[in-house]
Amino acid sequence: MKKLVLITLIAIAAVAAPMAQAQDKSPRKQWMTEMRQYKRAYLAKELDLTKEQQAKFFPLYEDMEDECARLDEDTRQMERRISEAPDASDLEYEKATEAIYETKVRQAEIEKDYAAKFKEVLSPKQLFRLKEADRKFARDMMRQHHRLRGNARAAAEKAQQ
Questions:
Q1: C-alpha span between 29 and 17 (Å, rounded)
Q2: What share of the chain is helix, strand, coil (3-state, %, to 5)?
Q3: Lowest mean pLDDT among 101-115, 120-134, 136-150
């Protein structure tokens, strides 16, 4: 059942991503909402969160993710501006490179700040397991994505034969 939900979400993502670029942001926003809900369920299970913990933890966790995502988006926009500028100077490239690395430092600071807030909600064991659960979720998502792409590629090759 878990795999079916994951496969469905990834399939939705594959369809919604190009549509989100071509149209308004609503399909992408819907996909992000669905992914967030799936991740909530995943983390709740992996960390064995009570309903009370979930009610307190997820708003904090999602605020942290939103801050990191905004930082990433700002950095990507800056990268695009520099890479698309035909007359970018060495100094601009240097400053952009520094900003890229500084983004990772800033994200780590954000996570550390939120870890202190998570301590008020999670047990020490749950807090310890959080980062691993995050990595496991990302690995599972990538595994499913690659599996779907492989299946789609195989189906396309079979249709051509």
A1: 10
A2: 90, 0, 10
A3: 136-150
* Neighbour-count burial of 158, counting CB atoms closer than 10 A to its CB (0-12 exposed, 13-18 middle, 19+ buried): exposed
Tokens (6 digits) for 34: 């669905």
Closest alpha carbon to 44 in 32, 36, 111, 141: 36
What Å distances lie between residue 152 and 2, 140, 159, CA to CA?
20, 18, 10
Task: Compute the C-alpha angle 95/96/99, nearest 5°.
Answer: 90
Q: Which tokens go with 71?
A: 């930082």
Which tokens in the block code for residue 145? 């994505």
**pLDDT tier, 4 (very low <50, low <70, confident <90, very high otherwise):** very low
